What we know:
It comes from Thermocrinis ruber. By secondary structure, the chain is of the alpha+beta class. The chain has helices at 2-14, 20-24, 35-48, 59-65, 85-91, 121-127, 133-154, 181-194, 220-227, 258-264, 271-291, and strands at 25-29, 53-57, 74-79, 101-107, 113-118, 171-176, 198-206, 212-218, 239-245, 251-256. It has a single domain (2-291), classed as 2-Layer Sandwich (TATA-Binding Protein), CATH 3.30.310.70.
Amino acid sequence: xxxxxVLFLSLFFFSFGMDPIKVMYLTYPLKERDFKKxxxxxxxxxxxxxxxxxxxLTISDAIRARGSEDFPNYYVIFGxxxxxxxSILLKAPVLSNVVPCSVVVHQSKDGKIYATLINxxxxxxxxGNRLNKEERLAVRKTYGQLxxxxxxxxxxxxxxxxxxxxxxxxxxxEEVKGLGYDExxxxxxxxxxxxxxxxxxxxxxxQESPKFSIFLACNxxxxxxxxxxxxxxxxxxxxxxxxxxxxxxxVGVGYINIPFLLQTYSKYLKEDKANIxxxxxxxxxxxxxxxxxx
Length: 294
């Protein structure tokens, strides 16, 4: 089974010469040479498109404050709260990995500045059929506007390729029984903090039934180890762990399928980095287990 999955992933991403990093992420070389000005320019232009930016995460500043002074400049422009977000996520919770969006602005060792955006089509190919036409168009329109901003700031146009839906689920999800939504949410936040997946914020997508929340969790030690080598992964940062009320009264909780990422990007990850991913996966699963009282 494992060999079949690896073969499938290879065919999925490498057919027609596709590199999985280039399929999943679009990275633009920015013309601006000053890092903070580049971040401000991209943020301002995104907002001028009518896309709300929730916050800018100064990840490299936080990592350097821990003593890693050589960590390269790395900020995440986090936002994209579109009017359709609630209806989209209630139908397809997994899309919380692309709505809200994250645009990563990062600097390489040679001083060049880049902006990276995830390819929404990878998720829409798998889960877009849960949405109506208008909702799918809303996601594509928002990402189209983001690509237009980054093309303008780089002078380079990149196309978000459309790919067939992967057979593997893009998220790992559990069902929690025996606890009310609000009770589980409170316990889960405490549990995440307890495993050092520090909760930066909770986005309340829907505060009325069916309720839906996105926990923005972060472990700077993991981020420092991974983002320095593969900055593109920051488009999924902070780690989004979603919770929602299911129709049967139970609670759904899920996050990006880390084993899927490991198998897809295995050639880019040394074993020590892969182990960090595995540890993060174990931490979140442990927090879910603790919150449900097991």
